[in-house]
Amino acid sequence: MKKIFPIIIVLISVSLVGVIYIQYSWLKNMLLLREDQLRDKINVVTRSISADLSQYKGTPTHTNKNFPALNDDLSSEFFKPYLVGSRFTSQEVYQKIKHAFVEQKLENVPFEFALIVLNAGELGNIERKSENFESWYDDTVNHLTYNHFLVPPSGSATENLTSDEVLIVVVPQISSIVFKDLRGFIIA
Question: For the whole model, what pTM was predicted?
Answer without folding.
Answer: 0.74
